[in-house]
Design goal:
mainly alpha, 2 domains, 5 helices
């Protein structure tokens, strides 16, 4: 029977990416608690906020690939390109969409206040993107998680499961 190998494989890279995303979302709950002095578990399932979970996930995946296959490998280059697009989208397009939603919400609210015979409307979600600092913190978190996971493989490589 063959032994299952987790470390230094795609499984390690996938788990690093998923862990980066999960940890960033978990941190958002505490960031919200610290800034608003109340707990809100809905933050765990939303986009936007500190740190960027999209960035943490893709950078953890990319860093893990670099550690496993080498930072000069083709798969690392493709993953890095993908990560840069995700990071730019988080701080660019999605952030602009959030600002547009905030403006539309304010305009609709003012219109409703002046015209009482307006049908109910859905408020647009405003927290979509990230500030450059939130993206940067997500990047640092992703790198730390990938290195921690990869270095734990060194600890466990001497042990058989």
């Amino acid at each position: 029977m063959s032994e299952f190998n987790f470390f230094n494989t795609g499984y390690e890279a996938i788990l690093a990416g998923l862990t980066g995303t999960f940890v960033a979302q978990f941190i958002k709950v505490f960031t919200y608690l610290f800034t608003h002095k109340k707990i809100n578990f809905k933050i765990f399932t939303t986009t936007g906020g500190m740190p960027s979970s999209h960035t943490a996930g893709v950078i953890a995946l990319t860093t893990s690939i670099g550690l496993i296959d080498g930072f000069d490998s083709l798969v690392f280059a493709v993953s890095l390109g993908f990560s840069l697009i995700v990071m730019q989208d988080a701080s660019g397009v999605r952030r602009a969409a959030g600002k547009t939603a905030a403006t539309l919400n304010r305009l609709v609210d003012e219109f409703v206040q002046k015209n009482q015979e307006v049908k109910p409307y859905a408020v647009l979600k405003e927290l979509l993107g990230h500030t450059p600092l939130e993206v940067f913190c997500g990047m640092i978190l992703g790198i730390i998680i990938a290195f921690a996971m990869h270095n734990s493989s060194i600890l466990f490589s001497c042990c058989s499961f």
